[in-house]
Design goal:
Blueprint: H1 13-20, E1 25-26, E2 28-32, E3 38-42, E4 46-49, E5 54-60, H2 66-71, E6 74-79, H3 85-92, E7 105-107, E8 113-115, E9 120-132, E10 135-146, E11 154-157, E12 160-163
Antiparallel strand pairs: 1-11, 2-3, 2-6, 4-5, 5-10, 6-9, 7-8, 9-10, 11-12
């Protein structure tokens, strides 16, 4: 029996993290406009439905971005390319000035901060925020976007940002 099971026979947070280190995930940055723009790196991005076009992502309620995401009507979803490992690290780093140089960005539709050079982006209207432990699952409907960036996707695996191998 695994030592990562708690006394009540439920998996521990360590077990969940260990298992998901084996799961390669695409890397996205979620942004929103507040008094100052906010954003964070997410590997929990999912396509939920095509009709209507819905996505979901998780955000920790202890995250510095959460107070703005909690109130935002719209969010930006950015799919990062393998050339953007440093950008992913910047948006994952606690206390970083994520929108300072060298981060390139502009105000997009609905005032959402849009990052430059990404593989694809969406602006989405937040439809729901669902409590899930110390996180919230945000469900949002795509409003507009651009899938025409070039390059290959950035992945997160074994606690590191990685590129696809041929």
């Amino acid at each position: 029996m695994s030592q990562l099971l708690g006394a009540d026979r439920l998996a521990t947070p360590e077990l969940l993290r260990s298992v998901f280190r084996q799961h390669a995930a695409g890397v996205a940055v979620i942004t929103a406009a507040g008094e100052h723009p906010v954003g964070f790196t997410a590997t929990s991005l999912n396509s939920v439905a095509a009709e209507p076009p819905l996505i979901s992502f998780g955000v920790g309620t202890g995250s510095s971005s959460w107070p703005v995401i909690a109130e935002a009507e719209h969010v930006g979803v950015h799919i990062l390319g393998e050339h953007q490992q440093e950008l992913a690290a910047t948006f994952a780093r606690s206390g970083a000035d994520r929108f300072a140089a060298p981060t390139g960005w502009r105000n997009g539709p609905e005032g959402v901060p849009l990052l430059d050079g990404v593989l694809a982006w969406l602006v989405c209207r937040v439809a729901a925020r669902i409590p899930a432990g110390d996180h919230r699952i945000v469900i949002a409907q795509a409003v507009t976007g651009d899938p025409t960036g070039t390059g290959r996707p950035l992945l997160y695996h074994q606690g590191r940002f990685n590129a696809l191998r041929d």
